[in-house]
Amino acid sequence: MRLLLSLFLALLLNACAGPQLRGTGDLGLVIERASGQVTLVNTSSRQAYARIGGLGDLSHASAVYSRDGRYAFIFGRDGGLTKIDLLEARIVKRVMQSGNAIGGSISQDGRIVVAQNYTPGGIKAFDADTLELLSEVPAEYAPGQFSKVVGLADTPGNRFAYALFEGGEIWVTDFSNPKQPKTQRFPAGLQPYDGLVTPDGRYFLAGLFGEDGVAMLDLWQPEKGARKILENYGRGQEKLPVFKMPHLRGWSVAQGKAYLPAIGRHEVLVVDVATWKEVGRIPVRGQPVFVIARPDGRQVWVNFAFPDNGKMDVIDTLAGKVVHAFEPGKGILHMEFAPRGESVWLSARDDNKVLIYNTATFVKQGEIPADSPSGIFFTARAARIGF
Amino acid sequence: MALAAEPDVARQKQLVHLVRQDCGSCHGMTLNGGLGPALLPETLKDKPPEGLVATIYYGRPGTPMPPWKQFMSEDEAAWIVDKLMTEFPK
Asked: Which of A199, A201, A203, A215 could be bridged to A188 by S-S, CB 3.0 to 4.6 A?
């Protein structure tokens, strides 16, 4: 009896201690592309706290978050969609949703997760709780012709905007009724390679590979159709070979100006967001891949395509030029700012490390070992349009 | 296909890394395809190897495929094609 009583007391004590409560605002994950794992990280302690494997082919994987920041939805290259619990550090659910995927997005109300696919080309909508398939929209732009889908972005009203690489169009699909989506189509231009939505959710932009320029659709007035901005930004000059497509997600807007990677050039284009005219170009040390503003907009960080992927340039948006250039490691694939930007995390793929820098002093604050790290995604994305 | 002088082991390692990581940004790290087509033996088997070598070395104008000649010799491109058409090293 005494034994039973002490067991009971022990249980009671355990129950009182319970699982430690915590929020998710300072958590995140790092994709380890070659080994199908993610490392879970804490941006306050700047430490890894768990690692989860079994996620399949994670080359070019990306993640979005549930609105409470507890669950990450990870889109793998092989079409795997995995839901992870950041607090319990485990896989909640995993489905194979296509043969070849390129990313995804989550709806304004957090209920629908949408994956964008190359093969078969199109998008698919899933219930965020169960990952049950709700509906799909094949990217059939002409009878029997399917396109790869790029640049999928969530926009207000549970609508998703995306572009068709072969189809040369921007599509907007409304999932207000998730089982019966409605799609509008807009001609955009030659070979859109990626897209983004502005932080207010108003404009969808698709970068064009097949021609100089960016297609822009005003989602507040879609009936006006897509128009081209930054046309002919490279006119009369031979384009350099492009060894890696730039990424437009991670859009940079600071002080009414947008900073965009120039495709096939060693330049960042500066655009006035009121007029959508080019107002400047900033020379950088390679072909930009990610051009991302620190959350306060004072700095824009730029990484580069092969063979310049060991370099990083930091633009001061007040000075309008690069103020810090350095070589933090080998194969810098991605960067993510702490929610308010005092630190930046860089993945150095070929060094098998994530490097953490103070953005004010550029001093290194720490590093985390990771196996071929690529994308870094913090939970602050949960509350942002277009992330 | 006539095999030119094989690159030495260290260089082979660099080329494999280049193909998986950098070609992989369009063709997929597992070479299953992405924005660019799959580079698996099944998908390449009906294509003339010389044409594939030229595609790597000179690129394909009108498509996103860039020329890689500043990073390798033509013989090295031929070695890559030979490996892609049989079994590409990890």
From this structure: A215
Query: Model-level pTM greater than 0.90?
Result: yes
The three-point CA angle A76-A82-A87 to 5° equals 125
Residue pair A132/A112 in contact by the 8 Å Cβ criterion? no
Residue A276 lies in a domain: yes
CB A264 within 8 A of CB A289: no
Q: Which two tokens stand for residue B63?
A: 């498509």
ipTM for this model: 0.88
Contact flag A78-B30 (C-beta cutoff 8 Å): yes
Specify the pLDDT at position B10: 95
Count of domains forming chain A: 1
Identify the contact set of chain B against chain A, taking CB-CB distances under 8 A. Answer: 17, 21-22, 24-26, 28-30, 32-35, 59, 64, 66-67, 71
Instruction: Produce one character per residue of A48-63: b if its CB has 16 or more CB atoms within 10 Å, e if not.
Output: bebbbeebbbbbbbbb
Superfamily of segment(s) B9-85 = Cytochrome c-like domain (1.10.760.10)
| Residue among A148, A307, A84 nearest B28 (CA) | A148
Domain ranges of chain B: 9-85
Residue A266 belongs to what domain range? 245-327
Chain centroid to Cα A361, Å, comes to: 26
